[in-house]
Amino acid sequence: MVLGSKEGVAHFIWAFCGPGDSIGISDPSYPIYPNQVWLSGARPVPVPLLEENRFLPDLDNLAKIGNKIKLLCLNYPNNPTAGVADLGFFRDIVRLAQKYGFYLLNDCVYSELYFGKRKPPSILQVPGAKERSIEFHSLSKTFNMAGWRIGMAVGNKGLIQALLRIKQNTDSGPFGAIQDAAIYALNHSEKLAAETRKLYLRRRNIFCDELAHFGWQIPKPAATFYIWTKVPNKSNSYNFALSLLKYCRVITAPGIGFGRYGKGYIRFALVQNEKRLRQAAKRIGRWLS
Question: Which of 149, 26, 12 is nearest to 80 (CA)?
């Protein structure tokens, strides 16, 4: 049990990585991965996520660095790109890890927030993946329990034990009421997760359709509650985010904040209610018009 996947990932990196190690980090990525690698004394090695590759790491590139890295950090479904990895991709990644001897971390917190018929897979569904993988999940996204901080780590026994060496000397577990709420959520997971998916599907469609009405066609993500899109007119992502705040009073995250390859992109988070999302999209659309 971890205090949310963020804490679990951070402590695992501290437990497993150190000076002299090189760690593969997606670019763009959730900032905790490169930041925690630096804090551990290790060196992050950027692994580009490009739109033409469906925001998945290029396997040929990974083969070139495979014998140089100790760990590859993955996050699928992905924050910030909303990219989704299929089982075939995970099979290929596991083969590379077995061939070159590196380990795999998959942060799988958005696995239940998908909008098609196919549920995003776990890397542990691949035969042999458990020998070299650890996967994290959190109740924050699936059950809207953000702030309550509870999650889990599963996978290779040795990797879990490395995490426990830090955990046992750092915290004593979540507050009991949070554990009780988590038990209820997991016992009713299918119903509650389905309701959450419907909620974010409506939000996604409202926001994207409203912007499309004003001429900004944004690809609808297949998972997560993020919209990751190129900024119009090849604008600077940081300046565009500032302009949205100044002229539309809409807060967004500039893609450059997630890494070099986030340049030219922007991330919207569908965490407001439908009325406010529609209002935000209208403000943006009118301003762009």
Answer: 26
